[in-house]
Automatic annotation (TrEMBL), chain A:
PANTHER family: NADH DEHYDROGENASE. This is NADH-quinone oxidoreductase subunit N. The lineage of its organism: Bacteria, Pseudomonadati, Bacteroidota, Cytophagia, Cytophagales. NCBIfam families: NDH_I_N. It catalyses: a quinone + NADH + 5 H(+)(in) = a quinol + NAD(+) + 4 H(+)(out). Its main location: membrane. Belongs to the complex I subunit 2 family. It comes from Pseudochryseolinea flava. NDH-1 shuttles electrons from NADH, via FMN and iron-sulfur (Fe-S) centers, to quinones in the respiratory chain. The immediate electron acceptor for the enzyme in this species is believed to be a menaquinone. Couples the redox reaction to proton translocation (for every two electrons transferred, four hydrogen ions are translocated across the cytoplasmic membrane), and thus conserves the redox energy in a proton gradient.
UniProtKB/TrEMBL annotation, chain B:
Its EC number is 7.1.1.-. Belongs to the complex I subunit 6 family. It is an enzyme of class 7 (translocase). It comes from the Bacteria. GO terms for cellular component: plasma membrane. Pfam families: Oxidored_q3 (PF00499). This is NADH-quinone oxidoreductase subunit J. It comes from Pseudochryseolinea flava. It is a multi-pass membrane protein. NDH-1 shuttles electrons from NADH, via FMN and iron-sulfur (Fe-S) centers, to quinones in the respiratory chain. Couples the redox reaction to proton translocation (for every two electrons transferred, four hydrogen ions are translocated across the cytoplasmic membrane), and thus conserves the redox energy in a proton gradient. InterPro entries: NADH_UbQ/plastoQ_OxRdtase_su6, Nuo/plastoQ_OxRdtase_6_NuoJ. Keywords: Cell membrane, Membrane, NAD, Quinone, Transmembrane, Transmembrane helix.
Amino acid sequence: MNALFVICGLGIISLIAEIANFRKWLISIIVLGLLGAAALVVADWNTAVAYYHDMLVFDNFSLAFTGLIIGSSLLWFWTASDFFEALFHKTDKSALILFAIAGGVLMTSFNNMAMLFLGIEILSISLYVLAGSRKEDLGSNEAAFKYFLMGSFATGFLLFGITLVYGATGTFQINTIANYVLTHAGELPSFFYAGALLMLIGLAFKISAVPFHFWAPDVYEGSPTAVTGFMSTVVKIAAIASFFKIFATCFSTIAPVWYTILLVIMVLTLVIANITAVYQNSVKRMLAYSSVGHVGYILLAFLADHKESDGTIFFYLAAYAVSSLAAFGALILVGGKEENTLVERFNGLFKRNPIVAVGLTIALLSLAGIPPLPGFFGKYLVFAMAINNGMIPYVIVAIVTSLIGVYYYFRVIIAMYFKDAVAEPLKVSTSKEVLIVVLILITLALGIFPDFLIQLL
Amino acid sequence: MSSAWLLYCFEAIAALSALGILFVRNVFYGALLLICCLLAIAAVFVFNHAEFVAVTQILVYAGGVLVLIVFGIMLSARHGGKPLVVSHNYLISGVLLSLSILGILIYAISKTVWPSPTALTTQEINIEKVGVHIMSDYLLPFEIAGVLLLVALIGAIAMASSKSKSV
């Protein structure tokens, strides 16, 4: 809870920075504040306190995901420092990002549907604006508008679902709903199931699972690369945490109703996202499809055992977030001012700048799931869990799609090492070089000591 | 008994004006019919002892959303000179879709066991209860809604401000 206060406070401080004229130190203040918030999360560990009439509960699940959100935001601020330097309205953007993080924290710690809704809306509205922050760029405008329309549409589904569930159970508290469903099994009105399915659709939009993913590639491609990096890490973590929380608590006992639907969504997500990614020439669009594809593996873990999969999902998301941030960070460096980076732009990157090339290689290998990187252990844990629960056919599908994934990630890697360089050496500031080394170290640490994160939950 | 007839009257007005929106070609008349429909629904809420919802309905929909729609029509009609007109392009698929939704709704409503209506024993004041809840149980959502509005405000300013003004 204190972490949430700190993050909201930082948002307000960054608004004041414009008036009180301390814009220069703003990013350092934010980074220090977020470090403080992370420390508060660690201090709250194992306490599980409910705040404000059970509106928010910071149990270990919420704290772990809050910590992951804050950690990825810190790394994101480092990778995206140019985003704040290059564009106008620096303080507005940092305020919107901070409130988006606060929305994400609400989405992991809600105990009441009202808080879930508010969290999703705070996160989404900030992102609609951030997606359109390159105003002179038509693609960015398109991304903002598409995201806004699709996001509002999804929110409509979610809200209607919440209303129907409330109508059937008479409460917004997720634990009370779970108890009600348990005690009234068999006599629930049919609109309760309709509400649960509408919420499934609304949240599937937010985690961008196929067939509700069609906004994701365009939005990811049109938004500034830094914002895309934020969307595919921090936002995805928050959305998946809220999806998990709703379906593992409220609707856990009516699993037969949504199980088959989610199974179809999972298979479609794995197959369609990974196959479409092969045909993409823009690296940003390829990463967008790959981020949709990774949702499929998380859903596979969730379907295998929706009660016990939180540790696996947490580790998978952590591994994915670090690799994804590294990939988007490299994309910002290589792309420069240009927003649409084709694979050809990575030709001979190893000769142009070996550090960036090695960092990007490790990130892509981890996303592809090559041992001993954390992406491999994430996939391994998911597959092991699925096999233990007798989902062997689906594991085979997932393995085949991850092999397809290897193909499109390696296209970039091959371009970096075996194609001739087309441009001069790429100059990168020292802070970015340090960042790449830090990201490589975190990736390797996650790969060598995966137990540390898995045993948290 | 008379209040029941009034209730049916308002329900009929809401249904007829909603139906009218389908057949009116001019978007502006459609917006006016929408106001009519929403006000009639507000009246239905009043008859069902949901005064707070009725007030919110009038404030948010009739007061806010419809003003926005009318402004939208006003600003977008400026270019053509002619009134905005809707066209029905997907008649068959639209009819099929709405009929299937109607079928689903009728099926669901007929299947659902509704709780038997009980007469209100005391005249409770709903709005007072809502206020007490907002200031006690739902204090945090109430405050966080403030953050949501702040975010929307910053976003609107960031989007609307001119790009040439460097900071």
